[in-house]
Amino acid sequence: MTRTHHFAAALLLALAGLAYSAPAQAADEPPACTEEGFFPNPDDQSRFYRCVSFEGGDFTRFDFQCGPGTLNHPELVTCVHPWQMPQ
């Protein structure tokens, strides 16, 4: 992924009001991507990640952190207040 792609992704996410961090590569992170889509972080409900396949078929994972006091709603793919979470 080029610097231009990273910049464009970060800009779009910033405009959407979400926090962006560089693609994760640490061993204690959620599983590596095997398909495209949004996925919850199994260890932290306030985090989720998106897997994207760019040219070449390799996946890149983008990690997101919900704002203070909010959690990732896996069905809506957005951050909500705890009382808005499914029971």
Note the topology:
Blueprint: H1 3-16, E1 19-21, E2 37-40, E3 47-53, E4 59-65, E5 71-73, E6 78-80
Shape: elongated
Largest sheet: 4 strands, antiparallel
Mean pLDDT: 78
- Percentage of helical residues? 10-25%
Low-confidence stretches are 10-16
As laid out across the biggest beta sheet, the strand order is 1-4-3-2
Number of helices: 1
Strand content: 25-35%
Task: Give an overview of the whole structure.
The protein is an alpha+beta fold. It has one helix at 3-16, and strands at 19-21, 37-40, 47-53, 59-65, 71-73, 78-80. Strands 1-4-3-2 form a four-stranded antiparallel beta sheet, covered by helices on one side. A two-stranded antiparallel sheet has the order 5-6. A hairpin with a 6-residue loop joins strand 2 and strand 3. The radius of gyration is 13 Å and the shape is elongated. 10% of the residues are buried.
Keywords:
two-stranded antiparallel ribbon, four-stranded antiparallel sheet, 1 helix, alpha+beta, 87 residues
